[in-house]
Write a structure and sequence with these properties.
Blueprint lengths: L23 H12 L7 E5 L6 H13 L4 E6 L5 H10 L2 H9 L22 H14 L3 E6 L6 H15 L4 E7 L1 H8 L12 E3 L5 H12 L3 H9 L5 H14 L3 H22 L3 H11 L6 H8 L3 H13 L3 E2 L7 E2 L4 H8 L5
Parallel strand pairs: 1-4, 1-5, 2-3, 3-4
Antiparallel strand pairs: 6-7
Length: 351
Amino acid sequence: MEKIKTNPFTLDFGREPYEMIPRSVLLTDLVNDFMAENPSSHISIITGVRGSGKTVFMTSVCKRFKEEKDWVVVELNPDRDLLQNLAAKLNGEKPLKDLFSAAKINLSAFGVGVQISGTDPEQDIEVALTKMLTTLKKHNKKVLVAIDEVSNTPSMKVFASAYQIFLRQELPIFLLMTGLFENVRQLQDQKTLTFLYRAPRMALEPLNMGRMADSYARIFELSFSEALEMAKKTKGFSFAFQVLGYFTWKYRKDNERIRAEYKQYLEDFVYEKIWQELSSEDRRVLYGIAKTPSGNVAAIRKFLEMDNNRFTPYRTRLIRKGIVNGNTYGVVRFALPLFENFVLEHYGLEE
């Protein structure tokens, strides 16, 4: 009996899937920017709607930098004390720990490392990190800090303020963050963190349709035209690419079952959460878009009884959130597959 192959698609969020569409150009640009002799920026912020592949992309970036012997990659949990966590993880690397010990950096007061004879413990974590990063700079080491799903928390604000000081001191530390558009914006709006507005912010675009079609064609033994039609059902949404592939693999030719599971999974694990985070007026605007198949902005405004000045801020915000796109002048369409159906089915139910 032929051995059953493992489903190459995954339903897990964040985990790098076996079958994935790489964002090669974006990855190369980011790596080249950070590795340049004089980097234009030491920070990069990746935004996108839930399920757009932010965490997977961050994982790819971290893997790439881990291949460089002069780079140290530290992934931090945004729910922890970020400064102390950074110190602990840097000191947890054996070669680095030896460098810090030789530099007489005593981290015992923070529960990191052991007492160093003849040296008083550091009393301020920011001062300790400054010494650690200065030591790494002397040994031509650079640090990439990766933080997934940032938000405007006290720990994140403290970390960002300290990071700004590290940059002013020309220390070799780079920062890669991912987050929902609204969470990143709230963090940038803090009076002491406006420097983040100057950081390159990249919104993840839909996956390449041709690459998705190639993948589906190879795995499911389809013609390219058949695979392209399948890929179009995802609208390039990263999580949808995985979900549709997963259920197509699982149920093979049962198209009705595949569509039902695909729709239900997107709704349960992505769309419900997106919907909950929207204001009532955002929902009303989305309902107007869903009720206007042409996507014509003038027709949508007429349906909603909104003038242009009132409609435009909602349109802009929904585009930035990654829910709709406005690539065609005078037209807005849903960027997420089957989301218009979700809107039509759920609008008004909570009222």
